[in-house]
Amino acid sequence: MPDPIRIVVVEDHHVTLDGLIGGLSRQEGIEVVGSSDNSEDGLAITEKTRPDIVLLDLHLPGKLGPKGMIKEFLRFADIRLVIFSAESRQAFIQDVLNMGVAAYLLKSERVAKVAEVIRRVHKGEKGIVTEDISFDRKKLTPSEQEVLHMLGRGMKYQEIAEQRYTSVATARKQCEVLLLKLGLQNREQLIAWAVQNGYGSDELNN
User: Can you give the residue range of the structural domain that contains 178?
Assistant: First the structure.
């Protein structure tokens, strides 16, 4: 019989934490070897137990913001990181996935689904996202995401062109491509979509 998948759960809502520990402990082939309600203790427990996977909420008490937490947990090269969060904004999720986490799950997921993703990640799968998140992150190139961030901050075509060292015509063309990809009608809708989905926010850069 293969060794169980060893996981650490880091979550500050105790009801959720207790539910995850209890539910995952009853799943075949999974062993919860540690848990914490803050990032500092979570890192210490991870270093001590060296689990296969860390299930991590990104909004925890402590000095580290989301980006800082991800960087610290990813220092453990042999450990895979699964994010478990209530944050559903597309820009935020894409930024997190781009940092190298293995999966991003919303807190609406059932324990059985979390366990399924843990098994998939343990087998080497990457880039897994909750099915309820209605976007195809592969649609948007890094260049297009950069343009969306600029639009979300209220920049005009001329400003986007200057910052990206390109022409106004190219900046306008990129926005037209984004309109087609996202099924939107005009620049105003594109700006509204960018803002609503977290583009322009620097929340992750903490």
Answer: 140-196
Q: What is the pTM assigned to this prediction? A: 0.72
How confident is the model over 103-154, as pLDDT tens digits?
999 998 999 999 999 999 999 999 898 876 655 554 678 888 889 989 988 8
Q: What is the CATH number of the domain that holds 160?
A: 1.10.10.10
Q: Which residues of 31-40 are buried (b: 16+ CB within 10 A; e: fewer)?
A: ebbbbbbebe
> Packing angle between helix 187-196 and helix 168-182, nearest 10 degrees?
70
Domain count for the chain, please give it: 2
Of the candidates 133, 148, 156, the residue with the CA atom closest to the CA atom of residue 184: 148
> Using an 8 Å Cβ cutoff, are 8 and 35 in contact?
yes
Is 206 domain-assigned? no
Query: In the structure, what pLDDT confidence band is assigned to residue 73 with cuts at 50, 70 and 90?
Result: very high
